[in-house]
Amino acid sequence: MNMKIQITTVALLLLCMGSASGADITSLCADRSAIERVYHERRTGTKPPFEQAMPAALLENIVRTQLRKERALASAYGVEITPALLAAEVRRIDTTTRAPEMLAEIKAALASDDDRFAVAFAKPFLVERELRQRFENDDALHAPQRRLAEAARDRLLAVKEPGFEARLATLKEGAGDLRAEVTWTLTPRPLDDDTASAPAIAPQPTEARARSTAYTNQATAQVAQVLSSPATGRAEANPVFYFEDLPGELQNVLRAQLRQPGDVSAVIESPEAFQIFLARECTASALSAAILTISKRGYDEWLAQQSFP
């Protein structure tokens, strides 16, 4: 190991340990300012001066929030950002960036200092990803919301009158946000249809789970909230949503569980919510359902409530 690598390793170790001092805050704010200035200069169109767009108080708030997330990661989940993790994140950024020129500008703005780049630029990404992933998958933390969703599903299944309308009335009486119904077209998308990027449900980057006492399997699916219009941003009076645009495992769950009007899906867990699908119409060409969404505890709210010794 050469001297530069030894020094870098020691420096990263020191920077990964403990809370930041006043001097650290000052230097981190300066580095954050340098990074944000690169972003600002690359923005096109009319824009305010950098000092107006990114005042010192805002920069300090960003830095302190990043430090708070790091402390929450250690306090709530016992995860420390080690030099090895940080070095791996730098490698990930270097090898996967889609904006190499901007990345080079950011490094130059930090005086081409590897340690400053690792701590000021790479570390916030690493902390945010690790903390959010654990928060979203914290079963104990989100247990109250899951119980609400499971209770809502139990109430639906207890309705003896068959069909959609009776169960819809029960669905409206409970907790949660009853989304407007969505209809998926089951036929394949026409070859000349260019709206493939506009699924009726926007996939999330993390795994979701479907559980039900009536189902022995634990299905996984990437789900999120139903969108009111296509993601393309085009205004359409009657947008067409294709079932094939849903994540494959969610398709499997809905096909298996929504076979006739009034059928109720398992509780579907996404990173931000628990959802229940109630079938209105099930034909060879279309599937329509109402969706009850019970939001999980908010990430920002939870973070603000964390206390540290």
Quick overview:
The longest helix has 23 residues, at 114-136. Helix content is 49%, strand content 15%. Residues 1-18, 197-208 and 212-235 have low confidence and may be disordered.
What characteristics describe this protein?
alpha+beta; seven-stranded mixed β-sheet; 11 helices; elongated; disordered N terminus
Can you walk me through this structure?
The chain contains eleven helices and seven strands. With 309 residues, the protein is of the alpha+beta class. The protein folds into two domains: 3-136, no CATH class; 143-295, no CATH class. β2 and β3 form a beta hairpin. α1 (3-16) crosses α7 (114-136). The longest helix has 23 residues, at 114-136. The chain is elongated, with a radius of gyration of 24 Å.
Sequence-ordered SSE layout with sheet pairings:
Blueprint: H1 3-16, H2 22-42, H3 50-53, H4 56-77, H5 83-96, H6 100-109, H7 114-136, H8 143-158, H9 164-173, E1 177-185, E2 208-212, E3 215-221, E4 241-242, H10 248-257, E5 267-269, E6 273-282, E7 286-295, H11 299-304
Parallel strand pairs: 1-4
Antiparallel strand pairs: 1-7, 2-3, 2-5, 5-6, 6-7
Helix pairs in contact: 1-7, 2-4, 2-6, 2-7, 4-7, 5-7, 8-9
